[in-house]
Amino acid sequence: MFFKSKPDKILFISLLPFSLTSLALIVYIALTLGWEAREAFLRFGVKLFTENVWRVSEIPEYESYGLLSPLVGSIYVSITSVLIALPLSISLAFTSAEFLPKNLSKIVSHLTDVMGGVPTVIYGLWGSLFLAPVLRDVFMIPLNRYLWFIPLFSCTPLTGHSILTASVVLAVASVPYMTSLVREGLAMIPFKYKEALYSIGAMRYEYFKVLTGMLKPYIVAATLLGFSRVLGETTIVALTIGNSLKISLCVFEPGSTIPSLIANQFESAGLYKYALPTLFAGSLVLLLICLTLTYVGIQITYKWRESML
Amino acid sequence: MSRYVIEISNLTVSIKGKEILKKVDLEVPYNSIYVIMGPSGSGKSTLLRVINRLIELIPDARVQGIVKVFNIDVFDMDPYELRRHVVMVSQEPNPFPHLNIFDNVALPARLNGVVKSKNDLHELVRWALEKVMLWDEVKDRLKAYPHTLSGGQRQRLCLARALAIKPKVLLLDEPTANIDPENTLKIEESLKSLKDELTIVMVTHMPHQAARIADYVAFIYGGSVVEKGVAREVFMRPRNEVTNRFLRGAI
Q: What are A132-160's pLDDT values in tens digits?
């Protein structure tokens, strides 16, 4: 083979099983999900993703499931939360990397890194018990009262547990991750371009403007990666979204996502013939979306890095 | 008014406690090409970066002494204002990869608000590209990106970008170190033609290049100015033995 020395060969061969295991595992997981979901696919077909029902029954013929609402909810919540998290992350990354004095910048970046280690259940509890009522009182009620004609704000009753609440908490939880992504991107811009900007007299805000332009593809990638992360987040959503199967444009309405549906229904789903396969079908779709987004995101990052050289 | 656009006196710079420049005195007359030559690591680039205060981007750099541009101490000036009058071109070509050829040259002018109309901007870009003899090579593909250009063309693009700010002083940090002889000659031609409009301070480690274009030279060695003066005199009759050895290529 391509090894000249014996130790190299031995090292490679002994590492092989471990590396292959990790790679094989993801394929294996996808296959298991598909296998477990087969009954739902066979029984409901495409309707599994185009209809919005969750009717359980002891008698299998009466069972009917359609994942449209959690699917739409997943995408809606993820988009909203990424839209909230992105400007926060870009500002935080820029401020800590380029504007703050070195010592302070270190403290800020350590803090954001530590924030990333906070268990999501804590964000979820905080969102559910503290943020939801606050958002309802200071944000949802006034907006609903004065801007009721905008469909985004038009729904009642306002319980606080809603798509918006879930999105905000998800955004808070994903800011550390996305900030570190953007910061990494900034650090990857070679110094020669930063020097070029200063040596033609660019001021800080112009510097910010040009670097953001340069970072654009990378920010798209970071958005996709953040999106795929948020899409899979379970605890936060299950605790804050209100868990309803309604499909609505209104962000004050409770909703559900595929992970939150799984978390909520998993225990009872075993009692019915088609409920569990349906949940597996949902998780398979989730897996495929997340893998695709991550792949595309990473590809963009690589391409961008090459263009920077 | 002083005869000199740049006056440096008693300048000492240390980075992380190590002295890079020692008690440097230098005077650059208006509308001349002043070449600072010396072997690698002699502190030439650092000297340039003090003049436009880019030295401040280097952590742990300490600057002592007086550096005046247009008779004003640079450390009393707004650094951004200073860098718009005293523009620098680096050794490695660094056009912005996400902007096309036109936008690269137009960027500083857009930032500065030098031009008012679209037409003026186009004229300015054309003027700058013509000055560096790049216009004929790129006029049909102004929308192309810099990675489609050769290294030498890219460096001329950077020079054009610097010129589009209409600076009064141009600092050049070994602008031809990484490019072929043909492009080097083109850049040197451009520089000679620019002398009427601005003052050029160029750093190089190649004595031949200094001999070709300099009006004045300073020879820096180990962080100190060993010899300086009118180029012709320094090249014909170097007073210092070290200068002599450098000019003969022995250092």
A: 999 999 999 999 999 989 888 888 888 89
Residues 26-55 of A with CB under 8 A from B: none
Please tell me whether the peptide bond between A157 and the residue prior to it is cis, using omega within 30 degrees of 0: yes
Mean pLDDT across B16-36: 95
A1 pLDDT higher than 80: no
Kindly state whether A213 is in contact with chain B, defined as any CB-CB distance less than 8 angstroms: yes
From chain A, the residues in CB contact with B80 under 8 A are 201-203
Which residues, other chains included, contact A16 with Cβ-Cβ below 8 Å and sequence gap of 6+? none
Pure H helices in A95-240: 102-115, 120-126, 132-135, 141-146, 163-188, 191-199, 204-232, 235-240
Q: How far apart are CA A226 and CA A85, in angstroms?
A: 9
The CA distance from A303 to A299, in Å, is 6
Pairwise CA distance, residues B102 & B94, whole Å: 15
Name residues whose C-beta falls within 8 Å of residue A193's C-beta, 6 or more positions apart in sequence: A211, A214, A308, B94, B96, B97
Q: Answer yes or no: are the C-beta atoms of A231 and A238 closer than 8 Å.
A: no
CATH class, B4-247 region: alpha beta
Closest to B9 (Cα-Cα) out of B71, B67, B70, B72:
B67
Q: Where are the domains of chain B?
A: 4-247
The first and second tokens of residue A180, run together, are: 């570190």
Q: Helices B118-131 and B181-194 sit at what angle, rounded to 10 degrees?
A: 120
Q: Helix or strand or coil: residue A94?
A: helix
Annotate B173-225 with DSSP letters as a single string: ESTTTTS-HHHHHHHHHHHHHHTTT-EEEEEES-HHHHHHH-SEEEEEETTEE
B15 has which bridge partners? B18, B61
Residue of chain A nearest B171, judged by CA positions:
A199
The answer to whether A60 touches A272, Cβ cutoff 8 Å, is yes
Longest dimension (CA), chain B: 56
pLDDT of B1 higher than 70: no
The Cα-based distances of B109 to A192, B121, B154, B211, B212 in angstroms read: 20, 8, 18, 33, 31
Domains and CATH numbers, chain A: 6-61 (no CATH), 69-308 (1.10.3720.10)
* Predicted-complex ipTM score: 0.89
pTM of the model: 0.82
Query: CA quadruple B144, B146, B152, B156: dihedral positive or negative?
Result: positive
Residue pair B85/B114 in contact by the 8 Å Cβ criterion: no
User: Which of B83, B53, B89 lies closest to B174, judged by CA?
Assistant: B89
Residue A101, chain B, CB below 8 Å: the answer is: no
- CB-CB under 8 Å, A198 with B83: yes
